[in-house]
Amino acid sequence: MPARPFGVYAHPKGERILIACRTLFSAARDFTRVSQSLNGLLTGDLQIGLVDNLASLPGSPFSQALKQFLQRRQDVQLHCRICSPGEIEQGLLNRQLDLGIGYFGQQLAALAYRPWLAETQAVYCSSDHPLFTQPNPGREHIENARWIQRGYLLAQQLCPLAPTDLGAVAFHMESVVHLILSGEYIGYLPTHYAARWVERGELRQLGGRR
Q1: Under 8 Å between Cβ of 160 and 112
Q2: Beta bridge partners of 150
Q3: What's the pTM?
Q4: Which CDD domains does this UniProt record tie to the protein (predicted)?
Q5: Do residues 19 and 90 both lie within one domain?
Q6: How many domains, in total, are found in the chain?
Q7: What gap in Å lies between CA 42 and CA 65, rounded to an integer?
Q8: Range from 73-77, 87-91, 95-99, 112-116 carrying the lowest mean pLDDT
Q9: Which pairing describes strands 42-50 and 146-150: parallel, antiparallel, or unpaired?
Q10: DSSP type of residue 186
Q11: CA–CA gap between residue 107 and residue 117 (Å, rounded)
């Protein structure tokens, strides 16, 4: 006998009540922050969305920024979560996040963007890829390989190269690494993040630094 899917179903009136409740909770949260800050003490919750693998950045800039913040007079509870750039922007728009750190190919008019740091990325292939053993693979060979496209970037934002075969899409850096290590794709990785696999001889930098 087929089972009926279990779940919660809201009628249009119920959906309106749900939206109103979310608005109420958000307003109550803002009121609490303002009222508690009147005595000069930072309080409340701080929701932060991060792209993955910031920890391998030289000097750990995010960790250092957290340290400086936590040494201030405050009583703030931090909530940190790993998100794709698109999820960060959506969380900010929905007021589920207060701050987002990541790479954003296109900027939304409803959000305020500030530059934080520069990151060098390069094209990599794995030891199982045909380009790995070529002494000096030319630009044409690199562009004609199967590429990984970042889900939050347009194809033309893969410059300075112009790949012709975008065979996979990835939204997180770790998923890019898994696809490259399969030996079937090449793609961009931050040099600080790829360094561990390069040292083990599992990845090779092909160029295309940006």
Answers
A1: no
A2: 170
A3: 0.71
A4: PBP2_LTTR_substrate (cd05466)
A5: yes
A6: 2
A7: 16
A8: 73-77
A9: unpaired
A10: B
A11: 17
Show the domain range for 200: 121-207
The Cα–Cα gap between 167 and 149 comes to: 8
Q: Is residue 185 part of a domain?
A: yes
Joined tokens for residue 24? 């109420």
Answer whether 103's CB lies under 8 Å from 85's CB. yes
Contact indicator for 125, 145 with CB cutoff of 8 Å: yes
- Tokens 């009540």 — which residue? 17
189 is a domain residue? yes
The runs of H, that is alpha helices, within the chain are 12-37, 61-70, 85-93, 139-143, 173-181, 191-199
One-letter identity of residue 139:
R
Residue 153 and residue 83 in one domain: no
Residue that the structure tokens 């530059």 belong to: 115
Which of these three, 101, 129, 152, is where a domain ends? 101
Q: What is the CATH number of the domain that holds 45?
A: 3.40.190
What end-to-end distance do the CA atoms of the chain give, in Å? Answer: 58
